[in-house]
Structures are given as structure tokens and as C-alpha cells.
Amino acid sequence: MMQPVQTGAALLRDIETTQPAPGEVALWWLGQSGYAIKTASLLLYMDLYLSEHLTAKYAQTDKPHIRMTAAPLRGGDITHAGYLFASHKHSDHLDPGTLPDLFRASPQARLILPLALVEHATALGLARERLIPTRGDETLTLGSLTVHSLPAAHPDFDFAAATGYPFLSFVLVVDGITLYHSGDTLAYDGLAERLRPFAPDIAFLPINGSDARRHALHVPPNMSATDAVRLAQQAGIRLTIPHHYDMFTFNTVDVADFTRPAAAAGIGYQVLQVGERFVWRKPG
User: Most distant CA pair in the chain: distance in Å?
Assistant: First the structure.
């Protein structure tokens, strides 16, 4: 099993003491699609999966979720969380083994999530008054943070009139920096056109794609590595960071499947190691 660059108290201390300057953002990949994101004014956590919930759930099935990378933290270790995001219901994005413990450890934390998942979240023990739901195709203003919630296709939109889109991506605008966190989504027709007006500085994109084996196991597909490169080109993204690989042995790809075409296409990209701090400064 691969080990994170930093873990536990050392990683938390690094997150807490790093202070980005205006125009900078500090990033820590926490595995799968999970990140800590820190700007001059805010610390955000995205799509955390910090438990062994899925390994236990699927141990005796035809798709055992065997971890490839150890969790750098547990939810109960995080006492400083403010805004959290969960893009959809799947447990590697809205984790029953992470979020209840994190909510207890960080009593000020609030979770932005699809409106369609509010009942699911409260059933996990997350207090309704600490949830910030969005239907998708909405804009939320939370102090210095502006959140644009966009539909995601995983693999379909599954829109419902009462609750909106159950799968979301997020465009985050904070301290002059614009970030796109995809959650899980296909590179559907029109996505690049949706993103281009936001001029994302950084996009976090899945690269695990799909294949016949995973389709037979009913694993929802994501955009592939080549899809991610194409989207970065079409949407004019400054820097692309790949995710959704090196977590489970049955549903991963070699990150070189992304870096080779990205380098050939001349797009800006950065491959992170779990637990590593990466600081990016906006040009100009």
C-alpha cells in the first residue's frame, strides 16, 4: 500500500500553519477526489473519503474495494473545518465513515451538498442546520466564497423537479482565484462551454474513465484521462490536477495515461502525491 507524504498531526499542522498570500492557493490531495484547499481567507475540504467504509462494505463481493493508498487522516482528526463539500451520494465522496466524526470534531463545519441528498445526510447523523443544499445551476455567496453549482453526469443527470441534480460539480471563486472541482462526471456535451466563461485557474478532474469490466460490475463511469486533457484544452483551464485514481485496485488507471497526452497537448498540469502540499500562485 502506498503511504502519504504527510499524515496525522504533521499533515494537520501543515494545513493549519500554511498561510497563502493573496493570489495564492495551497492544496493537499487527501486521496480519491478529496482535497484540502486553502486561500488567503478560507480553508475548504472537498469530497473527503478518509475511512475504510467501502473496504468493509464490499469485502465479500465481486468488486472488493482494496485500498491502494493509506488514508492520511481520519475525519475525527479534523477540528478546524469550516466549509465542506460533497458532490454526490457515493461513499467515496459523502463518506459515512468520515463526515459524522468530522462534524463532531469540528462543530463549526458546514456541508455544501446536493439538495437531493439532505435526507441521506441527516440519516447519517449530520445536523440539518449545518447543511447548505443546492439544486445545481445555482450560485451561493458565503462570505468571501462564491459557489457555482453545476450539473454533473454520473453517468446521467437524473434531474428531478423537486430536488434538482443529485450529482454536482462546483466552481469556487475565492480571493481572486477560480477553481473547478468536478466531483464525478463524464465530459458531457456542453461542459466546456459551461466552464469557459468562468476562466478556471485550476481544475480537479477525474481520469479513471471506464471499461467493459467495470461496466459489467455496474461501476458508474467517469471522464477518462484523454477526456480530461480535451476538456482542459476546450475550457481554457490554466492548470489541471488529476484525481480519482490510486484509491481502489478495481477502479483505477496509471496517471501516466493522463500525463502523456497532457504533455503532448501542452496543457498545464500538476500531479500531486497524497499528503503533499502544493502552492500555486496566479500569474500576474
Answer: 53
> Domain span at residue 113?
8-281
Flag whether 170 is in a domain. Answer: yes
Domain count, the chain: 1
Give strand ranges (E) for the chain: 24-31, 34-38, 43-46, 83-85, 110-114, 131-134, 138-142, 145-151, 168-174, 177-181, 202-206, 239-243, 277-281
pLDDT tens for the 284 residues of the chain, in order: 999 999 999 999 999 999 999 999 999 999 999 999 999 999 999 999 999 999 999 999 999 999 999 999 999 999 999 999 999 999 999 999 999 999 999 999 999 999 999 999 999 999 999 999 999 999 999 999 999 999 999 999 999 999 999 999 999 999 999 999 999 999 999 999 999 999 999 999 999 999 999 999 999 999 999 999 999 999 999 999 999 999 999 999 999 999 999 999 999 999 999 999 999 999 98
Is residue 141 one of the residues assigned to a domain? yes
The number of residues making up the chain comes to 284
Q: What is the CATH number of the domain that holds 160?
A: 3.60.15.10
What gap in Å lies between CA 117 and CA 282, rounded to an integer?
A: 34
Residue with cell 434531474: 159
Each as own residue / partner, the long-range contacts of residues 4-10 (CB below 8 Å, 24 or more positions apart, any chain) are: 4/31, 4/69, 4/70, 4/72, 4/273, 4/274, 4/275, 4/276, 5/273, 5/274, 5/275, 5/276, 6/72, 6/275, 6/276, 6/277, 7/70, 7/72, 7/73, 7/275, 8/72, 8/73, 8/77, 9/77
| 3 lies in some domain | no
